[in-house]
Amino acid sequence: MNKREFLKAGLVATVASQLPVKSQAKEPVAVNKKKAMKNWIWINPNLKDTDEDLKTNYAAYKAAGITGIFFENDSERHFRAAKAAGIEAHRWIWTFNRAERVADHPEWYSKSRNGDSCADKPPYVQYYRWLCPSRPEVQEYLTSTVNEILTKDYVDGIHLDYVRYCDVILPVNLWDKYKIEQTKELPEYDFCYCEVCQAKFKEQYGNDIKAIQYPDASLSWRLFRYGNIIRVVNAISAVAHQHKKPITAAVFPTPEVARRNVRQDWTNFKLDGVCPMIYHGFYKESVSWIGDAVAEGIHVLDGKFPLYAGLYLSDFNNDEEVRSGIQYALKNGASGVSFFGRVTPSVLDILKQESAAFKA
Fold it and tell me: What is the CATH topology of the domain spanning 5-12+37-359?
């Protein structure tokens, strides 16, 4: 499976049956229009693209208002072509979901509440191999990886993905697909209960997690895991800022969903921008929920850093829904949007029109 096949798999059959939900999105908020609007695309560089293809594509992106690209893989040719078109070129990396050290360091990988390691028993799908954020050697590995990436002069910044724990609760749209009902937290999907985590939790809070009857209800255990991710992200952030390059992250759609589903407290990350993946179809919500999610994120962030609404283009039934999604995001305080999926000329036209209206 590639980047998001696991999450995409359950969507196609249910898009037409998404439940209409009454919007709680706020009325348009006061936006600081002196601050430049930024729009992004998540993309995996196609090595078959010719130089002329890149020149044409990136010129079209720039003209439509795309200001930055998150490249999933390294391709100096693609990065430099984007920069030549006036577009920021950032490297997009998987952070904690990384399988490349399973063979030589299986002990680095998270364990479930059942005691199973995702090094040899990954949950949901085979590529779900999650590093344990409690381990200093994991933090050192990730910071050194980012440092190496940012030494390259053609890389303008770093973009973190999978910057969280494994999903203890999947988006509801995937329950049928994977024959799972996650109305409560199930132990086989609840990570990390490794020996290092247990020892550090006991040292910090004075409690043995094994002695807690309902660990899924333990507030201190949740805080411990939020803090683990925050600490590693902020260490990576320090590396990025040493290079004087920005750091952003793809995160779960709202602060509440992120904390509940994946133990991710992204409002306390030290970032230069955040891209919540507000994929409304994953949660069986209507397009207007994009505005609700943006409003919640903006409220909790309280100006710490910009929020760019992540939009999954396959969730939209037509171009007018794309337009509405962008409008809901901008009217509720987003500083721009980020697209995942096939960016068509019509989508670029809509972005250009909505960007012009936003700046007017």
Answer: TIM Barrel (3.20.20)
Query: Are 116 and 194 a contacting pair, CB within 8 Å?
Result: no
pLDDT tens digits for range 290-312: 999 999 999 999 999 999 999 99
The ranges assigned to domains in the chain are: 5-12+37-359
Instruction: Evaluate if residue 134 carries a pLDDT over 80.
Output: yes
Cα separation, 80 vs 86, whole angstroms: 10
> Tens digits of per-residue pLDDT, 228-286?
999 999 999 999 999 999 999 999 999 999 999 999 999 999 999 999 999 999 999 99
Q: Secondary structure of the chain in the HEC alphabet?
A: CCCCHHHHCCCHHHHHHCCCCCCCCCCCCCCCCCCCCCCEEEECCCCCCCHHHHHHHHHHHHHHCCCEEEECCCCHHHHHHHHHCCCEEEEEEECCECCCCCCCCHHHECEECCCCECCCCCCCCCCCCEECCCCHHHHHHHHHHHHHHHCCCCCCEEEEECCCCCCCCCCHHHCCCCCCCCCCCCHHHCECCCHHHHHHHHHHHCCCHHHCCCHHHCHHHHHHHHHHHHHHHHHHHHHHHHCCCCEEEEECCCHHHHHHHHCCCHHHCCCCEEEEECCHHHHCCCCCHHHHHHHHHHHHHCCCCCECEEEEHHHCCCHHHHHHHHHHHHHCCCCCEEEECCCCHHHHHHHHHHHHHHHC
Say if residues 340 and 4 touch (Cβ distance below 8 Å). Answer: yes
The pairing of beta strand 40-43 with beta strand 337-340: parallel
